[in-house]
């Protein structure tokens, strides 16, 4: 949100017990143990990723992918509350490796300061209006409504777009819609048929024969030839841990 831009590039610290916490809005959260032990902890409790949006309200800032903690990464949720000055007011660890921070600022004292709709550009507000109208007209389901809003928040930059390793929809379908309406499904099907026709045309143009897939095993397609002089080629994105998977 534009009115919170002035917090970017600044950091706010708080010392509780033997730890010093530092919160840098839209950057990260760090923790530094204030002792003279040789192995005193100093690390990252989370890196800025996205907002948590609940009921059209910015409910908190999520800082994820911090330092490793057992079998997971440390993460922090920062709640913004009204205060007379900008300050990190409280830090706790409600569950292992998950931290809760309270940040006070006069920038959120206005009753509408944490509402999402007013913070959106006009084009996205119009999209939201249309989504609300489609729900009222029963053109989309409640599940479809929630998905469309998430895509809208992603386009606004308030939510993180699913990464390549996360489940995604087949190419050709409307982004993030999940075919919640029959019209979307028909549109995606039509686009796929167009792609198939185009690919067949290219094959024909280059004199490459094509047939429908059969239930033939991959070894038969390869003429039972299996390379033995080198290890199997890794798939793109494979970290090479396939043999050590636990």
Automatic annotation (TrEMBL):
Residue ranges constituting the DMAP1-binding domain according to the UniProt record: 116-219
Record's keyword annotation contains Zinc: no
Domain MRH: 9-111
PROSITE patterns: DMAP1_BIND (PS51912), MRH (PS51914)
Record's compositionally biased regions (Basic and acidic residues): 221-236
Protein's UniProt name: N-acetylglucosamine-1-phosphotransferase subunit gamma
Keyword Ion transport included in the entry's annotation: no
Xref: InterPro entries: DMAP1-bd, Gtb1-like, Man6P_isomerase_rcpt-bd_dom_sf, MRH_dom, OS9-like_dom
GO (cellular component) term, any one: Golgi apparatus
Pfam family, one: PRKCSH
Protein's organism: Daubentonia madagascariensis (Aye-aye)
Keywords on record: Disulfide bond, Glycoprotein, Golgi apparatus, Secreted, Signal
Subunit note: Homodimer; disulfide-linked. Hexamer of two alpha (GNPTAB), two beta (GNPTAB) and two gamma (GNPTG) subunits; disulfide-linked. The alpha and/or the beta subunits of the enzyme constitute the catalytic subunits.
Upper classification of the organism: Eukaryota, Metazoa, Chordata, Craniata, Vertebrata
UniProt function note: Non-catalytic subunit of the N-acetylglucosamine-1-phosphotransferase complex, an enzyme that catalyzes the formation of mannose 6-phosphate (M6P) markers on high mannose type oligosaccharides in the Golgi apparatus. Binds and presents the high mannose glycans of the acceptor to the catalytic alpha and beta subunits (GNPTAB). Enhances the rate of N-acetylglucosamine-1-phosphate transfer to the oligosaccharides of acid hydrolase acceptors.
Region of interest (Disordered), ranges: 207-246
Localization per record: Golgi apparatus; Secreted
SUPFAM superfamilies: Mannose 6-phosphate receptor domain
């Amino acid at each position: 949100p534009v009115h919170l831009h002035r917090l970017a590039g600044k950091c706010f610290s708080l010392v509780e017990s033997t730890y010093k916490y530092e919160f840098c809005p839209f950057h990260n959260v760090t923790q530094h143990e204030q002792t003279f032990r040789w192995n005193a902890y100093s690390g990252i409790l989370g890196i800025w990723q996205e907002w948590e949006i609940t009921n059209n309200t910015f409910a908190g800032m999520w800082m994820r992918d911090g330092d490793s903690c057992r079998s997971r990464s440390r993460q922090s949720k920062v709640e913004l509350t009204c205060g007379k000055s900008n300050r990190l007011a409280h830090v706790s660890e409600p569950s292992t490796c998950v931290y809760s921070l309270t940040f006070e600022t006069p920038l959120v004292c206005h009753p509408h300061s944490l509402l999402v709709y007013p913070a959106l550009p006009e084009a996205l507000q119009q999209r939201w209006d249309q989504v609300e109208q489609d729900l009222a007209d029963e053109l989309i389901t409640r599940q479809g409504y929630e998905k469309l809003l998430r895509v809208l928040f992603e386009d606004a930059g308030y939510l993180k777009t699913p990464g390549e390793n996360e489940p995604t929809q087949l190419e050709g379908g409307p982004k993030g819609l999940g075919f919640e309406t029959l019209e979307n499904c028909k549109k995606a099907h039509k686009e796929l048929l167009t792609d198939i026709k185009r690919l067949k045309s290219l094959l024909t143009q280059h004199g490459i024969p094509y047939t429908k897939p059969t239930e033939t095993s991959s070894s038969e397609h390869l003429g039972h030839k299996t390379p033995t002089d080198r290890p199997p080629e890794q798939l793109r994105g494979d970290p090479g841990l396939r043999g050590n998977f636990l």
